[in-house]
Recover the amino acids of this structure.
């Protein structure tokens, strides 16, 4: 069983703490994605699992075996990096066979492993080509193929799609999902792209400042973020954050007075908070509707972005910079510099206290 367990893992470079007491368990066959902004420690965490760096504190186990002091070659992992790192003078076949030849495996075993991996990745017709004759997506498949032929217990991917254009990244996301389903191996994937995380993960690990902020299934993080950071990071465009103060709260509903004096409600349990506390109301762009009704705001439009399938209106929420984003139907008639009335349901609102932690939501489904 390729269960990966991290217990109190920390990493410091001198006085700089990159990771701080990370506890995590990745189940056998699970696809887990580490996501977070640049510098949050996600790639460092992957390197610790791979054995390319040593933890300052804590322990790492793979398949029930403590590998904290075990060399990378003996951990049963294979890592695919952001750069393809292919040998330019070798064919695709020889690139994929290189590690097995280095291990002095029999030629029949090498040939079977390479051709089987090529079949899985749909690159059998490319085995005689050199890397310079391949597209970016094909090179990435060859890099993955080199990992597959080693038959590892755990696959580690460090932002493997970041060098590809947007269209190719979309296609390769599907390929990664298909590959995981077909191989059924434990996969740990690092990205700063939340779309990749939401698409590929059984569970997402959100990191910030070297600490795990939340671990959960993609929709769990989307619907029930535990703090303001996770709420703002998961979702594109990002969740709208509106400052205000708590006016009244019960176990089912909170009334918030926004900056500017408008009062709105959120279906959250904020009864433990005090009246007058500073809070932040969070409402996702797609949760707004145009027109009067419950929790309505009338704000000037600063910018309109028509994307074909949807239209995004950027409203002036008091800072003059169009920070409130509303997703509207593609045929919505929205005019820049004119006021627009929008509303949201209390059930779609999130509320965060002055400590940035989320109050429990009363979901409407």
């Amino acid at each position: 069983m390729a269960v990966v367990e991290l217990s109190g893992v920390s990493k410091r470079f001198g006085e700089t703490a990159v990771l701080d007491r990370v506890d995590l368990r990745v189940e056998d066959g699970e696809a887990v994605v580490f996501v977070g902004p640049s510098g949050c420690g996600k790639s460092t965490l992957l390197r610790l699992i791979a054995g390319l760096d040593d933890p300052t504190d804590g322990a790492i186990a793979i398949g029930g075996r403590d590998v904290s002091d075990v060399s990378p070659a003996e951990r049963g992992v294979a890592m695919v990096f952001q750069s393809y790192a292919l040998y330019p003078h070798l064919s695709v076949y020889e690139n994929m066979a290189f590690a097995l030849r280095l291990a002095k495996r029999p030629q029949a075993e090498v040939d079977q492993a390479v051709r089987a991996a090529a079949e899985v990745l749909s690159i059998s017709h490319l085995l005689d080509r050199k890397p310079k004759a391949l597209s970016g997506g094909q090179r990435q498949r060859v890099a993955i193929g080199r990992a597959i032929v080693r038959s590892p217990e755990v696959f580690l991917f460090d932002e493997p799609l970041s060098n590809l254009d947007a269209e190719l990244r979309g296609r390769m996301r599907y390929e990664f999902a298909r590959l995981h389903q077909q191989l059924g191996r434990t996969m740990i994937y690092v990205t700063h792209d939340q779309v990749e995380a939401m698409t590929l993960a059984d569970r997402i690990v959100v990191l910030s400042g070297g600490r795990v902020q939340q671990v959960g299934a993609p929709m769990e993080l989307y619907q029930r973020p535990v703090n303001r950071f996770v709420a703002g990071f998961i979702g594109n465009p990002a969740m709208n954050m509106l400052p205000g103060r708590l006016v009244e709260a019960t176990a089912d509903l909170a009334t918030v007075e926004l900056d500017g004096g408008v009062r709105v409600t959120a279906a959250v349990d904020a009864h433990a908070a005090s009246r007058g506390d500073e809070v932040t109301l969070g409402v996702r762009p797609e949760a707004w509707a145009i027109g009067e009704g419950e929790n309505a705001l009338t704000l000037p439009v600063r910018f309109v972005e028509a994307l074909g399938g949807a239209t995004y209106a950027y409203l002036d929420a008091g800072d003059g910079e169009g920070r409130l984003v509303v997703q509207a139907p593609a045929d919505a008639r929205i005019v820049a510099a004119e006021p627009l009335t929008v509303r949201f349901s209390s059930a779609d609102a999130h509320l965060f206290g002055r400590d940035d932690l989320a109050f429990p939501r009363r979901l409407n489904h």
